[in-house]
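Quick start: load a record and inspect it. Here is Glycosyltransferase family 4 protein:
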Amino acid sequence: MKILQIIDTLNPGGAERMAVNLANAFDGVGVDHKLIVSRRDGGLNKQVKSQDRLVFLGKKSTLDFGAFQKLRKVVAVFRPDVIHAHGTSIYWAVALKYLNSDFKLIWHDHLGISEEVLKTNPRKELALMSSKIDFIITADEKTREHWINKKLKDADLIRYLGNFPQLSIIKTPDNEIFTFVHLANYRSEKGHMTLIEAAKILSDQKLDFQVRMVGAAIDSSWKEKVKAKVMKEGLEKFILVEDASENVDALLSEVNAGLVTSDREGLPVALLEYGLAALPVISTKVGQCPKVLLNGEFGYLIDPGSSAQLAEAMRDMIGNSEIVKTKAKEFQVHVEKHYGFEQFFKDYNQILKQLNIPVESVPAHD
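Running the structure step on this input writes:
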């Protein structure tokens, strides 16, 4: 069985980390695979264990014929049974399918569905391409329901598959003040402004804490707005606006709690990574987050955009650190059991069997 993944970049982000996690996991179970990166590495390429599995196309535009020809050559030589296209890579994958139908095409939709997405990026063109897509994996159940309602494929050919995290051993942080991490790229839907407003509430109450905002400047203008807002509110002491981290393992060992403050999500890999790191968590009620946290059993859940609720949860967490640590350890066990690679690969194998791909006996993942 041969699997070829395609993704646009390896900028630090949920879809990109998922592609890297899959590549490393395929290594661990002996699946022959390649990871094709269309545009640029973005830094996460360093986390791919088998560098010989990586191929960079150097794509400069959608109509970069030279890069597309390079992709065709890789496919012709490797002869994959499955092409697993992440996000916008589906367009070139479908173009390949028109030229070569000897593989099954799986589209992994990481975007998530919201009113904003439906308004700005409805992706109506996918209806014209759907006959070439053999299976759709979504990052949350709401997105699955959306594509079923749009009749993009039959319901049995669209499935929600939870993301899975991978981390090395995490040490206990030794911080003088309680430190939160907000691991999310700089985009308007990630809730940076809500977090700044919550931090302002806590600073006015004379609480001692710190927030580390860590992410790639996918929208550089948004990052500048975040910086300006932090300065306007006089929160430079409390909020650090940082670049993306190429070593999430080390980052999560340096903090006391994790935040998801997004207005929309599918299943953020960061939330699962917080769980593996046994970090107490506060999350907005978006995407699969409430389900992952068992409706608040394993962490705090707040409404999107509510700085007051966020501030209250952060304040409660700072004042009850031992209690929230116990909840975090329970969350760690929950993530390891229900959102690890073994569960993902079990479900993934069912998809491959449904597509009539011979699935070999695979040993347990390291």
